[in-house]
Structure formats: structure tokens, C-alpha cells
Design brief:
Strand content of chain A: 15-25%
Distance between the termini of chain A: 23 Å
CATH topology of chain A: Rubrerythrin, domain 2
CATH topology of chain B: Cytochrome p450
Largest sheet of chain A: 3 strands, antiparallel
CATH architecture of chain B: Orthogonal Bundle
Strand content of chain B: 5-15%
Shape of chain A: globular
Largest sheet of chain B: 5 strands, mixed
Order of helices and strands of chain A: EEE
Distance between the termini of chain B: 55 Å
Number of helices of chain A: 0
Oligomer: heterodimer
Structural class of chain A: mainly beta
Number of domains of chain A: 1
CATH architecture of chain A: Single Sheet
Radius of gyration of chain B: 21 Å
Helix content of chain B: 40-55%
Strand order of the largest sheet of chain B: 1-2-10-7-3
CATH class of chain B: Mainly Alpha
Number of strands of chain A: 3
Largest interface: A-B, 15 and 16 residues
Radius of gyration of chain A: 11 Å
């Protein structure tokens, strides 16, 4: 099991935040799901931007 | 039944601002369209044909593809053939009088939105919490001093978000009323109580005449603001817009004035509509207030559901830039599409019991702020304003009920309650 701290990722289009620690269980994404593990066709649930529109918030 | 053409008598009210005063009737009509005429065509005399888009999945599919479904080629709100011609005449051949973010397509839209985008990111908006909470508390104090009755729409809901956004822009308090008045002339041009004095509401040219006047009034007001901020920039939105560069060049005049127009109108009107309707909802569903008082952690859910419930931006128009197949329909290049956000936010295929106001609707994937690259840039500010108001008000609000009949605006675009008479007890 990875010991790397969970990160938050932000959609540059709308500001929505994907928190790896929380995931998104109602959307079938369990808590602890790393951003990189989200499917390539995953979209921002708030605005529909592509996964590539997200950047890590700690950079 | 899934006919391609919607009977004119059924769909015509969608283009008539007066229809929106009867919210229940509009909701029924949209449900009928959604169930029996999903993605079908309206041919209403005086208007070009429109595809009427009522399903949540269709609205999202369209609005996340700006390259295919344009915002800048035709009127962004329902406009008659006469109105479209007048806009072209007034603007030197352009399809709009205003040139706001709403009316742009990429790459113009992206470049203009980038100007303010960072300021409206949640982490930057959060820094305003102390200031906005103080404003919210002041309006709650004002309400507490009102002897148990008020028109919550006119007394509180319209003024609080107005003060927030005008403060962010950097406008003096004495000018806030000007912004409210121009907003109402602009967005409620057809409402007999809110329209520009002297409007002739039976005149088919009235909408565009009013918009020309509104544009000129805003230009007259903001010209001195722009000059001031260019000479002496401050830490406010007016300075950001006045000194904004697009691809390294100063913004053109129409875009700059329009930027101020959208900040000064959309920056508060939709939030005011949602706040007013939230109170109307509390006043008619006492169990909601009781639960929020017992569980204040549900206030963000209340805000989110109130946005879905109100959906203050009824619609936008898009035009197809190329042929496209959508839900089995052949959309042709040049076709117009009427995007109904209100209907999408009632779509039974997306929302369980959509006509119930549910605090436990999570996740609440409404599209009250839109969807795609055009999603409301001020959404996080709006959420913050509403959360803070209810966090301040609900603990002090002991009871609330309607003290008369509420009234919705007569507006086919941004629409909310214009009158919410309440009787209340506060501590």
C-alpha cells in the first residue's frame, strides 16, 4: 500500500477539486483513489472539462 | 410519442417572458416537452426554428462542446427575427449588443475569461469570507429590525449580493442602486414592475431599444471608472478589467464595457433570485427550517439544492457550427438550439424525485451554473454568499411563513421571485 500522502487536484476550468483521500463514492470512485488511477475519459464532474484540465494543488 | 415538431401552441410560451410568471405552468410545460418531445423542433411565428433541448444529458453534451455549438454566432437568449435584425443594425452587423463572456467562443472566450479566472477560484474567494460574512450579518440584523414582516426579495435578497459584487468591483455604496436599476432594465425588460420606465411592452422592438439604452448607460457610468483605474489601479475587479489585456493587447471598448455589464448584472441577479426563492421555500416547508436549525452542517446542501430548485438562468441559445448527431436527431449546421437549464435540472433520468426539495441530495449534479467552459465564473462566490447568509440567518430565524402571494418575474432568461412577502420571528 502506498504511503505517499493523498493529493488534491483542481480543475483549471471551474475550480472544482478532486481530493484523492475522499474519492467520489457516489460516482463509483472509492476513497483513496489516486488521480492517476482515474480513467483517461474521466471528466470534471462539475463542468465536464477533460482530466488533463486538472493540476495538483500542492505544486 | 417522440415527434420531431412540437405543436406551436404548446411550445410558444417558452419564448414569451410573461409565461415565466407562472412557474408551475412552465414546469408542467417543460415536463411535457421532456417526456413527449425530447429534442424536438419549435417553429414559432416571428422566430427562426429552434431545437428545444430539455434533457440533462443532451444539455451537457451540447454545452461542453463549444467548438461545435457556438455562443457567438447568434443571439445568446431567445430573440425574434425583428430583435436579431435590430441587434445587427445597432452593433454594425454583430449578432449581439453586448460582447460578454457569454457571447464568446474559444479562443476569445478563453482569453477573456483568463483575465478574472484566478480571482474567482475557490481558494481566493475563501479569503473574502470575513468581509462577506460581515455584510451577511448586517442584512440579518436589518431583517431583525423589520417588525416581523418584509418583502424578502426586495428588502434583502436583491441588495445583499448586489453589495457583495459592487464592493468587489470597487463601486461606492451610493452607486449600488444604479447597478440594480440597470440590471432590472436589462434582464427584466419585459416585467411591468421592473422594466425601464417608459418601456412600451407591447412593442416588439422594445427589448432591443432597452438593451441599447442599458449599454449606453453602462458605458456612460463606467467610462470614468475605467479612466480612473487605468490612471491609478487598485486592488479591485474594476482595475483588473480596465487594465485587462487580451493576447497582449488592450481590450476593445465594447468587450470592456460588456465585461463590466456582466459583472454588474449577472454578478448578483442570479444569486438574488436563488436567495429569494430559498426563503420562499423555507416559508412554505417548515420542516426544512427545523432540520437546518438542528443540523446547520446541511446548509451547503440547502444552498446546492436551492440552486437546482431555482435554476435562475432559464436558458441559453447555441447554434450548430457543423452537422452533428445528438440523441438520434440530425442537427444541421446553422441550426439553433434552445438549452433549457430548468428542464435539465428537473430531468427524472438524472434526479430522483426532481420535484422534491431534498437536503440529502448528494451528489447534487445540477447544472444551475451551466456546464462546460462557459460554466459561471462566479459560482464559488455565489455559493459562499449564500452559505454565509444562511449561516447567519437560520440560527436566528425562529419561524417564517408567507404573508401574501409571492410573485415571479416575467422574464424568459434570468428569472426569480420579485416579491416574497414573509412574516417571521427572529431572536
Amino acid at each position: 500500500m502506498s504511503t505517499t500522502p493523498y493529493r488534491k487536484w483542481q480543475c483549471l476550468a471551474c475550480g472544482d477539486i478532486y481530493d484523492e483521500a475522499l474519492g467520489s463514492p457516489p460516482d463509483g470512485i472509492p476513497a483513496g483513489t489516486r488521480f492517476e488511477a482515474l480513467p483517461d475519459d474521466w471528466l470534471c464532474p462539475n463542468c465536464g472539462a477533460l482530466k488533463a484540465s486538472f493540476v495538483p494543488m500542492d505544486d | 410519442m417522440s415527434d420531431l415538431k412540437i405543436p406551436t401552441e404548446l411550445v410558444a410560451p417558452i419564448f414569451n417572458p410573461a409565461s415565466y410568471a407562472d412557474r408551475q405552468r412552465m414546469e408542467k410545460m417543460l415536463a411535457n416537452l421532456r417526456h413527449n418531445y425530447p429534442l424536438s423542433q419549435a417553429e414559432v411565428p416571428g422566430y427562426d426554428p429552434h431545437w428545444i433541448v430539455t434533457k440533462y444529458k443532451d444539455v451537457r453534451e451540447i454545452t461542453r462542446q463549444d467548438n461545435i455549438f457556438h455562443s457567438g454566432d447568434r443571439s445568446k437568449t431567445p430573440a425574434s427575427l425583428i430583435a436579431e435584425q435590430m441587434m445587427r443594425d445597432y452593433s454594425g452587423g454583430k449578432p449581439h449588443i453586448f460582447r460578454t463572456l457569454v457571447h464568446m467562443d474559444p479562443p476569445d472566450h478563453t482569453a477573456h475569461r483568463d483575465l478574472v479566472k484566478d480571482a474567482f477560484m475557490p481558494q481566493n474567494i475563501a479569503a473574502l469570507e470575513t468581509t462577506i460574512r460581515e455584510m451577511a450579518r448586517r442584512y440579518v440584523d436589518q431583517m431583525a429590525g423589520m417588525d416581523s414582516t418584509c418583502d424578502f426579495a426586495g428588502d434583502i435578497a436583491m441588495n445583499y449580493p448586489l453589495e457583495v459584487v459592487c464592493t468587489l468591483i470597487g463601486l461606492p455604496k451610493e452607486d449600488h442602486a444604479i447597478m440594480l436599476r440597470l440590471t432590472q432594465w436589462f434582464l427584466s425588460y419585459a416585467d411591468p414592475d421592473l422594466c425601464r420606465p417608459g418601456s412600451v411592452l407591447t412593442d416588439p422592438e422594445e427589448q432591443i431599444k432597452t438593451w441599447q439604452i442599458v449599454y449606453d448607460e453602462f458605458k456612460s457610468y463606467y467610462s470614468s471608472v475605467i479612466k480612473d483605474r487605468q490612471a491609478c489601479p487598485r486592488h479591485d475587479l474594476a482595475s483588473t478589467i480596465s487594465n485587462g489585456k487580451i493576447n497582449g493587447c488592450p481590450m476593445d471598448e465594447r468587450s470592456m464595457i460588456s465585461y463590466f455589464v456582466i459583472a454588474s448584472t449577472a454578478g448578483h441577479d442570479t444569486t438574488a433570485a436563488t436567495i429569494a426563492n430559498s426563503m420562499w421555500t423555507l416559508a412554505t416547508k417548515p420542516e426544512l427550517l427545523a432540520r437546518l436549525k438542528a443540523e446547520p452542517a446541511l446548509i451547503p446542501n440547502f444552498v446546492e439544492e436551492a440552486i437546482r430548485w431555482t435554476t435562475p438562468a432559464m436558458c441559453f441559445i447555441r447554434s450548430a457550427a457543423e452537422d452533428y448527431e445528438l440523441s438520434g436527431r440530425q442537427i444541421k449546421k446553422g441550426d439553433l438550439l434552445y438549452i433549457s437549464y430548468l428542464s435539465a435540472n428537473r430531468d427524472e433520468e438524472m434526479f430522483e424525485a426532481p420535484y422534491e426539495f431534498r437536503l440529502d441530495r448528494t451528489p447534487n449534479r445540477h447544472i444551475g451554473f451551466g456546464y462546460g467552459a462557459h460554466i459561471c465564473v462566479g459560482q464559488h462566490l455565489a455559493r459562499l454568499e449564500m452559505r454565509l447568509l444562511w449561516e447567519e440567518l437560520i440560527p436566528r430565524l425562529e419561524s417564517v411563513e408567507m404573508a401574501g402571494e409571492g410573485k415571479w418575474q416575467e422574464s424568459e432568461f434570468v428569472c426569480g421571485p420579485k416579491y416574497v412577502p414573509i412574516r417571521f420571528k427572529m431572536k
